[in-house]
Amino acid sequence: MPEQNVPTLYEWLGGIEALDRLSTRFYERVKSDALLGPVFAHMDAGHPAHVAAFLGEVLGGPTTYSEQHGGHPHMIRQHLNRHLSQEQRRQWVNLLLDTADELKLPDDPEFRSALVGYLEWGSRLAVLNSQPGASAEENAPMPKWGWGEVKGPYQG
Hints:
Blueprint: H1 9-13, H2 15-31, H3 47-58, H4 64-69, H5 71-79, H6 86-102, H7 109-129
Helix pairs in contact: 2-3, 2-6, 6-7
């Protein structure tokens, strides 16, 4: 198949409508989660939409998050000094994947492999960026994730 016919991950999962459903339902579930609820106790009502826009941009969709919220440096700043643990990170990833299953997002091996790859990579960066002494590089590029990404070591 010629590469120009390969949809982005964003297109494959159903675009912003699917991501809005995913993030809305996910954060509903987070509120009642014993481990994650306290982390997001002060989350504002717009948080799910911001996360949907961020994920959309990362997965090949429009650059809405960068244009309206400041791109990757802004996302990094949201994690500074949060002191996230690996246990919280794993629960976040697992709950998001469970929510994707609940909402019947694509579950083909290729898509799920790419999604899990990004969630693992991104959530591990979030933990690193949440520790004491971490800072947000103002020129940090927005991650771009596709069907078979392999990233080098994080040098931030």
